[in-house]
Amino acid sequence: MKSALDSNRPIYLQIKEAIEEDILNGRLAPEEQIPSNSQLVSHYNINPVTVLKGINLLVDEGIIFKKRGLGMYVSPDAPEKLKRRFSDAFFQEHVEPLTALAKPLGFTLREIHAMIDSAWKGEKND
């Protein structure tokens, strides 16, 4: 769980994203129970309705599900669903704009690969 929330963004979305991040990073496994609403309310010192709004988004997306009387659990296919969604978003938000800019500048695919490899390794591109 994140230690703090950003006051500049809707809190319910941050709750949703924090749970998604925990699933993607393996801190919450498929079929594992997520923190209860009261735990989240207490941890972040926020309104229960705000927590419920973020949780309901995850339920609507099939990322978590309710076991009656037991709590909320990570759906078996949640990691794959999230990876697919984030992969699609990454492609649209980063790869497409990168290629749209690189082509008119005359970069070859090999040069782009070399730049990405360099950035991946933390090297500065000269």
UniProtKB/TrEMBL annotation:
InterPro entries (alphabetical): Tscrpt_reg_HTH_GntR, WH-like_DNA-bd_sf, WH_DNA-bd_sf
Name assigned to this protein: GntR family transcriptional regulator
Key words of the record: DNA-binding, Transcription, Transcription regulation
SMART domains documented for this protein: HTH_GNTR
Keyword DNA-binding: yes
Organism: Bacillus bruguierae
Domain HTH gntR-type per the UniProt entry, residue ranges: 9-77
Taxonomic lineage from the root: Bacteria, Bacillati, Bacillota, Bacilli, Bacillales
Highest taxon of the lineage: Bacteria
Stored Pfam families: GntR
